[in-house]
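Record type: monomer structure entry
Structure origin: computed from sequence
Chain ID: A
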Amino acid sequence: MFKSERDDKKPFVPLSFFVIAVSDTRTLETDTSGALLKEMIEADGHHVFDRTVVPDVVHQLRARVQGVAADTHIDVIITTGGTGFTGRDVTPEAIEPLFDKRMDGFSVLFHQLSAQNIGTSTIQSRATAGLIGKTFVFCLPGSKGAVRDAWTGILRHQFDYRTKPCNFVEIMPRLQEHLQRLEVEQ
């Protein structure tokens, strides 16, 4: 795992998350990956605003993510499932066009962590991330192992204001500067 340092002199800042399982076969009761993710997020002191299941249908998933991203109460959306290569795996196709900014480093780091546990099978995931407006969006594979790797190895640290040398929480107030700049330029 990668080492992250923490400055315990800084306060913890809880964030609001929304978890979406992308599946044609799971329900909230059978979605073990989403349940695990919710448990880990809350154990680390954050709030899960809601958790839902959306079918592997591009327009339905895209509409749901757009609606959640527009909610000013939500800081982070995490999807689980639909990142593979089968015909029903459409999460990247549905979500990536919505990104105002892509986070290519997430996929790279996720695959490095994942390879430690599942070897070369990590290439079968198209995990992706980006920013929609001021909302962070992460698209994870649907397995519990992938969800655990992403949360414990990357996201837990980047969504902790105390993480050094930098983290997402400290830049959140500045995420929409590009919109302000566009208003000035027009």
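Annotation 1: The mean pLDDT is 94.
Annotation 2: DSSP finds seven helices and eight strands in the chain.
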